[in-house]
Input
Amino acid sequence: MSDPLSPSPEICQHIAQYLSDQGYCILESAMPKSITDMLYQRITTMRKEDFFQAGIGRKNNFQVDQQYRTDHIHWLHQDQASEAAYLAWMESLRLGLNQALFMGLFDYEAHFSHYAKSDFYKRHLDAFKGNTNRILTTLFYLNPQWDKQDGGELLMYENDKSQIPLHTIMPNMGTLVIFLSDQFPHEVLAAQQDRYSIAGWFRVKATGGVLDPAY
Output
């Protein structure tokens, strides 16, 4: 019997192959439905005060700029069952990708993202210039019965100079997107109803073995 908290070898190999070939992977129904359903139940029943306004930058450079992004977030922790299940699945994926691609991924951090009606996130890169150690970005969507008129699409661009999206991705329930953090600018278009997802990052140790702090 397969372990629901671990991706199958086939899924690990599929993701690794696409990352190697093109730097990104878009996979529908990657995670067991039992985990996806638990995560959806969790995020849709959380209290408003469990979330805080997302910002940009880290530590002393952290700032809230609602002209840039307007979503609210909640960092995932091991002491909650559905969040722990997701983190365990990603930990197994980390080990699988390290085995396949020798990436030296050291850990993983993630948060729920809630986009209320009209919320957005303008075009950006996830990897910070300089002391960054975020290597792979993951996005996992938790929106059943999402239609085009609901907005909230993820637009991925091939590089900084690209004006036409490489992909337009609907935030459909169970879709997993993984890409190299420093290569693909992306944005979230304004949602027309509540939009739920998990954003995460696989990281490597920075110079001197110190991890950049979460933001």
Notes: The radius of gyration is 16 Å. The longest strand covers residues 107-115.
